[in-house]
C-alpha cells in the first residue's frame, strides 16, 4: 500500500511538495511520469529512464490486456519483472483507450463492449474486469474505471456519465484488494462545469482511497480553460492524499497546474514530439529537421546536461532525423524526457524555497 506525506505548501500559490511511499520505492512530488504504453516507453530502455531520473512510469491496461495479455504478464512475474523496471508503476483503467481507439464500442451499465483495434476481436471492459487486469499486472497505483467524455459534451450527457462513473467506482472499490500491492485512485470528472466537478469530487472522495485524480481535461478545451478548470478542481481533492492530473501536458500546463496544487502528471508529449523531431529547450521549441541546423555545431540546448546535448551537435541530430536513422528517435526522446523530468525537479526546489510564484512567472515570460 502507498502512503503520502505532504512536506510543504508554497505560501503564494498553494503548490505542494510531497513524498509518496510505494512498494517499489519513494516518489518525490510533484512528479512527471513517462508513458510506457505497451510496457515500454517508446524509443528508450529502462536503463535510459533510470539514468534520466524517472521515478515512476505508466503502463496502459487496454494495450496490455490485448497484447501480450495480463495473464501472460502475471505468469511471468508481473509487469515490473516483465519489463525489468524495479521502480514504481501506475496503470490506467483502459477506459480512455476504449473510447479513443477501439472499434464499435457500446457503453452500458455493465461496462464497455468493444472490438480490438488490432484484430477486431470482441471484449468487455467493466469495472471488475479493469480491476482484475490491473491487479494481475501488479502496478503500485491502479486507476478506477471511468468514462472520459470530451470536455465540451452536452451537460445532460455529462450528468448521465458522472452518475454511471460514480456507480462504476463503487464496483471498482468492491473488486479491489486493498491488502494487496496496488493502491486504487478514484477519478473525478465533470467537464468544464464547476458545479459538476464539485458534486463529483464529493461523490468520489466519499470513498477513502489512497489517492485521487482529475480526468477529462485536455480533451478539447483551450489551455486557458483547462488551467482555470484545474485551478478550481484540484483544491477540492483531499489535502492529505496525492492529486493526479491525467494526460497533461505541455511544459506550461505542468508548471501552471503544479501551482494549482497537483502532484502527479503523465503525458505522451515528450516522446511523441521527439519522434517527429520537435525538441523542448530553455529557449523554446526546436524543429530539428529545419535547414538552418545543417551546419550548426552547437547542442540542442546549451543549458541542458542530457546525454544528447552533451554529446551531439544540432547538425548531427538533423542528419539522423532526415536520414530516418532509428537512433534519432532515442536521442530526441532522451532530450525531451530530460527536459520534462528536470522541469519538475526545478519546480520541487522552488516550492521548497517558497518561491514558486516567482518560478511560474519567470517560466511563463520565457514562453512568450
Write up this protein.
By secondary structure, this protein is α/β, with parallel strands linked by helices. The chain has two domains: 3-267, Queuine tRNA-ribosyltransferase-like (TIM Barrel); 275-368, no CATH class. It has 15 helices and 17 strands. It has helices at residues 46-52, 61-66, 70-75, 79-83, 95-100, 127-137, 155-175, 194-205, 223-233, 251-259, 269-275, 307-311, 314-322, 327-352, 356-367; strands at residues 3-9, 16-22, 25-29, 31-33, 35-36, 57-59, 89-91, 103-107, 112-115, 122-125, 141-143, 183-188, 211-214, 243-245, 264-266, 278-281, 284-287. A nine-stranded parallel beta sheet has the order 4-15-14-13-12-11-7-6-5. Helix 8 (194-205) links the parallel strand 12 (183-188) and strand 13. Helix 11 runs antiparallel to helix 14 and helix 13 (314-322) crosses helix 14. The longest helix has 26 residues, at 327-352. The chain is globular. It starts with a strand and ends with a helix.
Mind sketching the topology for me?
Blueprint: E1 3-9, E2 16-22, E3 25-29, E4 31-33, E5 35-36, H1 46-52, E6 57-59, H2 61-66, H3 70-75, H4 79-83, E7 89-91, H5 95-100, E8 103-107, E9 112-115, E10 122-125, H6 127-137, E11 141-143, H7 155-175, E12 183-188, H8 194-205, E13 211-214, H9 223-233, E14 243-245, H10 251-259, E15 264-266, H11 269-275, E16 278-281, E17 284-287, H12 307-311, H13 314-322, H14 327-352, H15 356-367
Parallel strand pairs: 4-15, 5-6, 6-7, 7-11, 11-12, 12-13, 13-14, 14-15
Antiparallel strand pairs: 1-2, 2-3, 8-9, 9-10, 16-17
Amino acid at each position: 500500500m502507498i502512503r503520502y506525506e505532504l512536506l510543504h505548501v508554497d505560501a503564494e500559490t498553494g503548490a505542494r511538495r510531497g513524498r509518496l511511499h510505494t512498494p517499489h520505492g519513494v516518489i518525490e512530488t510533484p512528479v512527471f511520469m513517462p508513458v510506457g504504453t505497451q510496457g515500454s516507453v517508446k524509443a528508450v530502455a529502462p536503463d535510459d529512464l533510470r539514468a534520466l531520473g524517472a521515478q515512476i512510469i505508466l503502463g496502459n491496461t487496454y494495450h496490455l490486456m490485448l497484447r501480450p495479455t495480463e495473464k501472460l504478464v502475471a505468469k511471468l512475474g508481473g509487469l515490473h519483472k516483465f519489463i525489468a523496471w524495479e521502480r514504481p508503476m501506475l496503470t490506467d483503467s483502459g477506459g480512455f483507450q476504449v473510447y479513443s481507439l477501439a472499434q464499435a464500442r457500446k457503453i452500458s451499465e455493465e461496462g464497455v463492449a468493444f472490438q480490438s483495434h488490432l484484430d477486431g476481436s470482441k471484449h468487455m471492459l467493466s469495472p471488475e474486469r479493469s480491476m482484475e487486469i490491473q491487479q494481475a499486472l501488479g502496478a503500485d497505483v491502479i486507476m478506477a474505471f471511468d468514462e472520459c467524455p470530451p470536455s465540451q459534451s452536452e451537460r445532460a450527457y455529462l450528468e448521465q456519465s458522472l452518475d454511471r462513473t460514480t456507480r462504476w467506482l463503487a464496483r471498482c472499490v468492491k473488486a479491489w484488494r486493498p491488502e494487496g500491492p496496488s493502491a486504487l485512485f478514484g477519478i473525478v470528472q465533470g467537464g468544464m462545469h464547476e458545479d459538476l466537478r464539485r458534486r463529483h469530487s464529493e461523490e468520489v472522495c466519499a470513498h477513502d482511497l489512497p489517492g485521487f485524480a482529475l480526468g477529462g481535461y485536455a480533451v478539447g478545451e483551450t489551455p486557458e480553460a483547462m488551467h482555470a478548470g484545474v485551478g478550481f478542481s484540484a483544491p477540492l481533492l483531499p489535502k492529505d492524499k496525492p492529486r493526479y492530473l491525467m494526460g497533461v501536458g505541455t511544459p506550461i500546463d505542468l508548471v501552471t497546474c503544479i501551482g494549482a496544487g497537483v502532484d502527479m502528471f503523465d503525458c505522451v508529449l515528450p516522446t511523441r514530439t521527439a519522434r517527429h523531431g520537435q525538441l523542448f529547450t530553455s529557449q523554446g521549441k526546436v524543429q530539428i529537421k529545419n535547414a538552418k541546423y545543417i551546419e550548426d555545431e552547437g547542442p540542442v540546448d546549451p543549458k541542458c546536461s542530457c546525454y544528447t546535448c552533451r554529446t551531439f551537435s544540432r547538425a548531427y541530430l538533423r542528419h539522423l532525423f532526415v536520414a530516418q536513422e532509428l537512433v534519432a528517435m532515442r536521442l530526441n526522446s532522451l532530450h525531451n524526457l530530460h527536459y520534462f523530468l528536470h522541469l519538475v525537479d526545478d519546480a520541487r526546489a522552488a516550492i521548497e524555497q517558497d518561491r514558486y510564484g516567482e518560478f511560474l512567472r519567470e517560466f511563463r515570460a520565457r514562453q512568450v
